[in-house]
Amino acid sequence: MDDLRPITPIRRPLAGKRARVPASKSVANREIVLAAIADGRSRLQLGPLDPGDDVHAMTDAVVALDYRVDRDDGELIIHGTGNGPRGAGGAINAREAGTVARFGAALAALGSGSVTITGSPRLRERPIEPLLDALRRLGATVTGDRLPMTIVGPIRGGEIEIAGNESSQFASALLLVAPLVDGGLTVHIVGRLVSAPFVDLTIGALRQRGVKVERESNVITVHQRHVRARDVRIPGDVTAATYPAAAAAVLGGSVTIEGVDGRVREGGQGDARFFELLQEMGCGVSHRGGAVAVRRIGELHGIRANVRDCSDVFPTLAVVATQASEATELTGIGHTRKQESDRVTVVANAIKALGGQAQAFADAILVEPAPLHDGVVDACGDHRVAMAFSILGLQVPGVAIKGAGAVTKTFPQFYEMLAELSK
After folding, report:
1. Is 312 a catalytic site residue?
2. Which domains are seen in the chain, by residue range?
3. Of 53, 237, 271, 312, which is the active-site residue?
4. How would you label 336-362 residue by residue, b for 16+ Cβ within 10 Å and e otherwise?
5. Given this model, what pLDDT does residue 266 score?
6. pLDDT for 373-420, tens place per residue?
7. Which of 28, 70, 356, 374 could form a disulfide with 77 if both were Cys (CB 3.0 to 4.6 A apart)?
């Protein structure tokens, strides 16, 4: 099989291991957009690890729109123009990145040039039409309802409704460019908002750059204002940190993930809730010195939780759940069927491929205790499935991941990290 990676099991508790993860994709991609439209130069410090294809694609997207970016040894120096795209147009290849397609579309709509956005075959199937409709209502000309598409701005200010049930990135895309829209923008998020903490993350990034943002529930007003340039050290990616944390949960013992703020707090990375859920399952979690530490000594317990606000971590939780003494039910995940894969079905099938018991529902997954055996897990091109089930392979001998190369999307050095845990 193409790209088939056997996982070398550890099958012993982790003895005080330490791990590092890349810079946060969610923070970095917001800061790249804001740095481009800011007044002056911003320095984004990404750290020593490769942040992954999504961050590279976002950087290439702003370069394609004629913003100047200098890349140097784990840093991006972005020369903001204080304005929208300067060129006559451009072409953005979002590759596999939903954030790049959505944020890039909004950024392109600030300018008057014709910008084409394309991406991978799977990305062309993922939802973006609600954002494109919103840009049309704000005055942009948009050709096409899915990638590839062409956008010609500029958009105007005012009030706009945007659906929240498929992706929080639609709202975040509008909010990020709102300071440069004439008269500012009021965004009404309609329906139940998935991954709500990521909208909080966007608002926090705007405020840190001097933008006035007012919020009343799901009505958010961004005032027209110059965006301040700033130097930012991008924190470690909380979602990436769930994988070494899950290794401690599955194998026992402890691991400390450096450079990660795993606390749930307003304006923080929303997937930090994973660590609270891990505590409910029987792990000890502590936060100190800019790191998060996870320890498991006793047995794991099943949980029932709605993870709509942190759905990217549900594959990792499902993997941990296979080792629990009771069933686990995770709900609020229906929208993940339109991500890099039909994630609910793919995760359930992966558990069953290893002899486990899992049922996929429209908006939920149920995982019940069962002995596991060797087998091949098809990640279906999904980086989060590949990483989660690689962790399970540390405990279950004979696991191989088909499509393991997908990890380069957000964690290119993932397998090097696993090798360090095994030492």
Report:
1. yes
2. 4-22+235-422 (3.65.10.10), 25-223 (3.65.10.10)
3. 312
4. bebbbbbbbebbbbbbebbebbbebee
5. 87
6. 999 999 999 999 999 999 999 999 999 999 999 999 999 999 999 999
7. 70
